[in-house]
Amino acid sequence: LSMRVVVSFYTTENLNELRHHWEFSSALQSKGILGTDEVFSKKISLGGLMVELDWGEKAITIVNKKHLVRPSGFDYDSCKKIFFVASLDGNFIYVLNEKFREIERISNKLMNDIHSVSLNNTRDKLLVASTGIDAIMEIDLRGAITWLWLASENGFNINPLGESVKINTDK
Known about the structure:
Layout lengths: L1 E8 L5 H10 L24 E8 L3 E8 L3 E7 L4 E6 L4 E6 L4 E5 L7 E6 L5 E6 L4 E6 L4 E6 L21
Antiparallel strand pairs: 1-2, 2-3, 4-5, 5-6, 6-7, 8-9, 9-10, 10-11
């Protein structure tokens, strides 16, 4: 008896570069906050993989894998047999077939550090967490926003440095 499992790994290379950035780039440390307020701007690959495993009783084998730009969350449309994969650094959503071949990319100007993507019940829209701007958005499969919630417009408009935040949705 075995089962198929699909997993994504968003940092597979150069993790020490990130650790160094977190340790030495944080203006927040003096305030007792773990994290950084500075963008990781090095133009290096942090890796990323999408892997399909055959999880058997005696062995686990890799059935399929694809290198992606930091996949951070995904959902699967079992009717259309396609994956929607959020790219944390790419600021877009991969659309992949069952063999992990890229069909297209979905993007929107408000996608920034996408952490998750979830297909709705009617399979025509995606719920997306765009954490770079602290937003939750619903988009159609072309990337057009059908609903938007911004933390900065709902009482969360001060960042950890005490600065006021306003997101310009027009640009």
